[in-house]
């Protein structure tokens, strides 16, 4: 996996600017999904539904979001990461068992994964950038 911000994210106000842009992008992509209210890169992702909603927003035929429940964390996280890997070629940087050990995911880990997912979607031509 590549390291650092994706090339087209550089120059958007440094690390804080990239983080704010990605958080905004996640909110916009998941705005209409039930049980998803992305406010940060930690507790907002705990149930796995934010990951599922984000992936589903690009691959709506990959799974039925309506069948998911917030309490089924393992299922949600596994589904999101497997779908992102299969359809977006996004490496599974997060381990489901590690995430389940904590009530709230580590913000740096979630941020890194979301950045990699974004990078993967750009590479697939699914996210348009100012340079693309």
From TrEMBL:
Family annotation (Pfam families): CH
Coiled coil location: none
Family: Belongs to the smoothelin family.
Occurrences of domain Calponin-homology (CH) (ranges): 16-122
InterPro entries: CH_dom, CH_dom_sf, F-actin_Monoox_Mical
Alphabetized UniProt keyword annotations: Coiled coil, Phosphoprotein
Transmembrane regions: none
Protein name: SMTL1 protein
Organism whose genome encodes this protein: Crypturellus undulatus
């Amino acid at each position: 996996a590549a390291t650092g911000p994706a090339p087209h994210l550089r120059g958007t106000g440094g690390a804080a600017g990239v983080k704010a842009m990605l958080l905004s992008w996640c909110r916009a992509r998941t705005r209409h999904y039930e049980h998803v209210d992305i406010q940060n890169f930690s507790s907002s992702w705990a149930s796995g539904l934010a990951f599922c909603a984000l992936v589903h927003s690009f691959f709506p035929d990959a799974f039925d979001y309506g069948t998911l429940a917030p309490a089924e964390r393992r299922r949600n996280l596994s589904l999101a990461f497997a779908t992102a890997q299969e359809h977006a070629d996004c490496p599974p940087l997060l381990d489901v068992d590690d995430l389940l050990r904590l009530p709230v995911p580590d913000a740096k880990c979630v941020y890194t994964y979301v950045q990699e997912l974004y990078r993967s979607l750009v590479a697939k031509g699914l996210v348009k950038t100012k340079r693309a």
